[in-house]
Each structure stands twice: as C-alpha cells, then as structure tokens.
C-alpha cells in the first residue's frame, strides 16, 4: 500500500518473508529502501555460497548507491531473521529529490557512495583471496599430514628392518659358532 510523505515522494511499504530477495547483485536499481522493522542481509557471490557483507537493522537505508550513480547493484539483498518491513522509495521519487538538492550535496553524496562501492569491491577481492588462502592452507595441512604419516610409516619400516637385521645377524653368528671347527683337545 503506497504511503505518501509529501506531494513529490511516494513511499511503498513492503512486507517480506525470511530469505525473500529484495534485489539481486548486478540488477538495475529501481528503488532504495529504509528498514522499518526487522533486518536485511547484504551479500555478494553465488546464492549457494553467499558472502554476507552486512546485516542491516531497523532504521538503516540501503540500495541508494545504484540510484545515485546509475550503476548496477553491487550486492544482493534479502530479508533476514523473521522477515522485515521496508519502506521503498522509487527511482523517480529519489531522482526528483536529488534534482532539488544543491549540486555540492549531490557531488558529496556521489563521492561517498563511490567510496562505499570501492570499499565493497576491495572487500570482495580480499574475501576471494582469503578463501583461496584458506584452501591452500588446508591443502598444505593435508599434505603435511600425509607426509607425516608416510614418515611415521618409514620410521616403523626402518625399525622393523633393523630388528630383522639384528635377528639375522644373531642367527648367522649362532650358525657360525655351531659349525665352526673346534680345535682338537690335547691328550
């Protein structure tokens, strides 16, 4: 049900269930949102293995970067927890308000949002690098464990070989002693 704050800004209230998508990464921005109740998760990557970059609570605003910069969404958003109630400000209403603002304020808003977008991209890169490093460390740990197991097996085999060598030496000495000619006894 649309709610009118003023003659120039139409706001729609949206009620979302837990996990319900609000918008997808790389989609075009058609609105910005204010969380009236509940929480929202902002995430990047694949839906099967998302990287949560933020959990926003009541009073937070999100989705404005795509409207200010006319750029695709830099992340996905979905209702978290028990769901949420959002106030949605459509692109046209937002643009009208932006056009009414002082050019300096618009420029500062664009700079701030560009900084947030750049920080988000850096976070994504670092998250991917960290995931790669975690995989490398896991592989190295597994290799070290295998190498340790092989070392243990080699040490056990060496100990068994040494024990067998001792046994054969003792057997050989016993054989030599038993079959060695004894000097004749003096009469």
Topology at a glance:
Blueprint: E1 2-4, E2 10-16, E3 21-23, E4 31-44, E5 51-57, E6 61-62, H1 64-69, E7 76-90, H2 91-100, H3 103-179
Antiparallel strand pairs: 1-2, 2-7, 3-7, 4-5, 4-6, 4-7
Unreliable spans are 1-8
Average pLDDT rating? 83
User: Architecture of the largest domain in CATH?
Assistant: Sandwich
CATH superfamily of the largest domain: Jelly Rolls
Order of helices and strands: EEEEEEHEHH
Summarize the structure.
The protein is α+β, with helices and mostly antiparallel strands.
Structural notes for this entry:
Mean pLDDT is 83; it is low at 1-8. It contains three helices and seven strands. Strands 1, 2, 3, 4, 5, 6 and 7 form a seven-stranded antiparallel β-sheet that branches. The longest helix has 77 residues, at 103-179. The chain folds into two domains: 2-99, Jelly Rolls, CATH 2.60.120; 101-171. With 187 residues, the chain is of the alpha+beta class. The protein has helices at 64-69, 91-100, 103-179, and strands at 2-4, 10-16, 21-23, 31-44, 51-57, 61-62, 76-90.
């Amino acid at each position: 049900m649309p709610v009118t704050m003023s003659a120039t800004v139409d706001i729609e209230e949206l009620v979302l269930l837990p996990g319900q998508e609000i918008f997808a990464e790389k989609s075009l921005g058609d609105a910005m949102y204010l969380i009236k109740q509940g929480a929202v998760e902002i995430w990047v990557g694949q839906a099967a293995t998302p990287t949560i970059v933020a959990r926003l609570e009541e009073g937070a605003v999100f989705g404005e970067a795509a409207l200010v910069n006319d750029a695709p969404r830099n992340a996905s958003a979905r209702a978290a927890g028990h769901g949420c109630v959002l106030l949605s400000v459509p692109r046209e209403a937002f643009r009208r308000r932006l056009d009414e603002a002082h050019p300096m304020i618009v420029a500062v808003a664009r700079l701030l949002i560009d900084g947030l977008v750049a920080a988000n991209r850096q976070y994504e890169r670092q998250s991917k690098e960290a995931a790669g490093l975690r995989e490398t460390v896991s592989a190295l740990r597994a290799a070290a464990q295998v190498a340790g197991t092989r070392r243990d097996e080699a040490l056990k085999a060496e100990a068994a070989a040494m024990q067998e060598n001792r046994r054969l030496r003792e057997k050989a000495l016993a054989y030599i002693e038993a079959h060695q000619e004894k000097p004749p006894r003096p009469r």
